[in-house]
Amino acid sequence: MPDDPTIKVSPQPANRIDGREFSEICPAYLGRPHARLDPLREQGPFAWDETQKQYFLVCHGAVRRVLQDRTLLRDRSRAGAGTAVAGTYDAPPKDIVERRNGAQVLIFKDGEDHVRLRTLVGAFLARVREARPVVEAIVRDVVTALPAGGVAFDLVAQFAIPIPVRVIATLLGLPQNDHTKVRAWSDDLALGFNPYRTQEEDGRRWQAIREMLVYFRGRLEVARATKTSDLISDWLSLKERGADLSEAEIVDHCIMMLTAGNLSTTDLISNATLAILRDGGLREKLLRDNGLVAAIIEEALRVDPPVTTTDRIVARDGDVADCPFREGDVLTTSLLAANHDPEVFADPHRFDVARPLRPHLAFGAGAHICLGAPLARLEGQTAIRELFARFRDLQLLDESVQLRPVPGHRGPSQLMVRG
Question: For residues 276 and 303, what is the distance between their CA atoms, to the nearest angstrom?
């Protein structure tokens, strides 16, 4: 350690952890995360993750301040060597680099590039504002196809998965016959969230990207030739009117929407449904007043956020949340822990739809707050309202629900129910 007191070095908190024990790949953590997060929070806002070589934040105040700090970065290439972020988001194969032609998605851009690419967001949000009839029609179609008359079915596979796939695919203007393979691609892309993935899983991820790059290049050509009314056409129109966008960037954002918009919304719908099925009083309240659905979705987001962690990278030596860090340090924030901080949420582990409005961080915060939040809320509210309008006596068949072991995500792999 340098003797010069003016040189700041990263803090070395006394509480040190093995990050694998605070990841969804650990069965004990997956089943009871707060048995580990609560004691860790009591030791302070920061912990040092020995295995992933990064800092782990668990207090609401520190997490919020980090997420809102515009000096911090999302650009994964700026992470320090040896950190899990640098390893997780490793360089793609040469052929993929060439096909992408330097493109990178908005969520991993900072500064001027982030501002430039936000032109894509405006077109997306305009489509979302008009999407309620589309979402309602898709949800009703999915609900109608569910087996009735006491027949058991998997609510995740037959309800929570199809809805976001079809919504995103419809907004992009993709043919219905392509929805199944689009979902398979997005599942393979999600393998990239796991820093401990196998070589075989890595190969599947890159192959999915190869196929999607080819597919969406073709969809751009279809949109250009037919002048369709969909999000891809909107983005092409922006480019033709002079927006500083490349076609490679449009393709990359099609892929991003399918990845970010499917798994997380599936988990939101599943988590909210599971909370209702486990609480008879909550179900009765909903059946008497379906206006409660918005509060149910917000509390589901707080209690079981579909995305449990997100990270920021220190751009230069300096203070962050009153602590000194060095350039390249990775700060991984636990949205799950922050949403259960007793300093902000009374009786934080209780699912309470009457809870006074509090700032949960399920969608993050700051410049990189989740851009799909309005669509996720619309899909979640519509799905819950329509599901329980048709199945007033929906029953959970197995209380021992298995959660999906995907790092940074939280949701059941299966929910067997009977209508």
Answer: 13
Q: Tell me phi and psi for residue 311, to 5 degrees.
A: -125, 160
Residue 77 belongs to what domain range? 16-418
Q: Which residues pair with 152 in a beta bridge?
A: 418
Categorize the per-residue pLDDT at 262 as very low, low, confident or very high, splitting at 50, 70 and 90.
confident
Give a yes or no: residue 10 inside a domain. no
Question: How many angstroms separate the CA atoms of 275 and 303, rounded?
Answer: 10
Calpha distance 399→47 (Å, rounded): 33
Q: Are 246 and 103 in contact (CB under 8 A)?
A: yes
H runs (alpha helix) in 118-178: 119-129, 132-145, 155, 162-172
Question: Is 6 a domain residue?
Answer: no
Model confidence, pTM: 0.92
3-state secondary structure of 307: strand
CATH code of 394's domain: 1.10.630.10
pLDDT computed for residue 12 by the predictor: 62
Residue 379: inside a domain, yes or no? yes
Half-sphere exposure of 154 (CA within 13 A, CB side): 11
Name residue, tokens 């196809």. 145
The two structure tokens encoding residue 249? 């960037």
Q: Which of 305, 403, 300, 307 is nearest to 28 (CA)?
A: 403
Within its chain, how far is the Cα of 166 from the centroid? Answer: 17
Structural domains in the chain (count): 1
Confirm if 134 and 167 have CB atoms less than 8 A apart. yes
Residue range 288-335, pLDDT digits in tens: 998 999 999 999 999 999 999 999 999 999 888 778 899 999 999 999
Q: Any idea what DSSP says for residue 157?
A: I
Examine residue 1 and state whether it is found in any structural domain, yes or no: no
| Each residue's pLDDT tens digit, 329-372 | 999 999 999 999 999 999 999 999 999 877 899 999 998 899 89
Beta bridge partners of 17: 49
